[in-house]
Amino acid sequence: MNPVERVKVSNYGASVSSYLVKPADICGDTAVLSGDEAAHASKSARKRPGDELVLIDGVGTGYRCVVRTVEGDRVVCQIREVIPHMGEPRTHVTLAVGMVKGDRFDSLVETAVELGAGAIVPLETRFSIVHHTSENRQRRWNRIAEAAAKQCLRSRIPSVEKPQPLRSFAERTGEFDVVFVAWEGQQESANPIPVAPLVGSILLVVGPEGGFHDEEISLLRSKGAHTVPLGPRRLRTGTAAIALLTLALQGVGEYARCLAPHVD
Questions:
Q1: Residue 80, Cβ neighbours under 10 Å: how many?
Q2: Which one of 51, 84, 117 terminates a domain?
């Protein structure tokens, strides 16, 4: 998808609803909503034949559709336009963050998905207050990611992985083109996120409220990670994660493409 197509998607506005359709329920120019998505479209949103809506398949494709029929627990839609990679950044960014207490991680997941994170990994570190989470909380995080993706018209639903110890997760750094770690001990630099627009994958690592232990920083550096500063102020984990994600996406030109002219 070219930049102009992405801008056209963002111009749908708040009046256009987005719903999750199963890839198996798409055939030719027809897509069928079922279950909770159909109930939301037909009952909550009161969609009727002729109404426009946007569908996402959760794995990278969006569809501009109109409602053809509402049949009980099914909403049958006619596909007017197929939009590959709708709302998705060109660079896949994984955000690995030290777990925090309460609902702060919920808010972090929501905001990170809206900004463009491709995956989120909760980390267990030496200074983490939270070291384990329940299956219910894991499901909740993924429900939040799904809702956020639909809200911001992304076609791919980012995964929220199970919490992982930093030491074992550090072995995965080789899967990424570049790795950045937010660290308050790093001296300021003019360009804290020196990445090129064509980078395919980025891993961003942020510590818990207590920060990283020096041994953890040494471990990450030994795996090729670059430590970067986030300014002179002390930030909470959620704030640092969103700041680092925003800087990384800006570094690969994600926000510059928002300035592309609108072409009908």
A1: 11
A2: 84
> Running DSSP on this structure, what letter comes out for residue 156?
B
Q: Which residue has the tokens 């993706």?
A: 149
Proportion of the chain above pLDDT 70, given as a percent = 86
Indicate whether 99 and 66 sit together in one domain.
no
Of 111, 118, 92, the residue nearest 241 (C-alpha): 111
Domain count for the chain: 2
Say whether 75 sits in a helix, a strand or coil: strand
Same domain, 68 and 102: no
For the stretch 11-20, pLDDT in tens is: 565 556 689 9
Helix (H, G, I), strand (E, B) or coil at 29: coil
Residue 108: CB partners within 8 Å, gap ≥ 6? 97, 100, 120, 237, 238, 241, 242
- Distance CA(7)–CA(4), nearest Å, equals 5
